[in-house]
Amino acid sequence: RDAARLMVEKGISGLPVTDEQGTLVGVISEGDFLRKEVDRGDLMGRGLLGVLFDKRDSLAEAETVDEVMATNLFTVSPDATLVEAARTMTTHAVKRLPVVTREGKLVGVISRRDIVSAFTRPDELIEDEIREDILRRLLFLDPTLLDITVESGVVQISGELPTRTDARLLEAMVQRTDGVIRAEIDVTWKLDDTQVGNEPSNLP
Description:
With 204 residues, the chain is α+β, with helices and mostly antiparallel strands.
């Protein structure tokens, strides 16, 4: 009942459940509570508010959330891209995903709304982040070395960078930038620092 009350007060439809060490052990949702009432055969068309405040309901008899929570979970890692998270949500028909480390520790929750908000990020902000944050501040490179365009979340980058490592880091960072739907990167390098002596070439 405490979990249901929290969802009503915060206007959310689900909560992750962790143990004392912060390890994800389940997820509890409005649907879990309502299914319990359906199984009982006494739902009578009520939503979570009705179930929550009717003391006759079997929800009142549940002592802990593990009696109603789901344990067959779909999760994403902190370094997953937004596209990967969206694909997981679509494949498994879920509205939110717990973000979990390799050790099983819960570090956050991402929802469909979060992804939609990221994908509707203005193109000019995406381009500015690539030029100023990724190239200038993180890679210590001159943004004018590259031609960069962003249109409807699709990033196109061409030009030449000092090293192959620079090109690889750029590609990885751009693909993980909020709002980027697809990255089309056609970049060469002066030095293949992964195997000194190679001639400049395109990205693998």
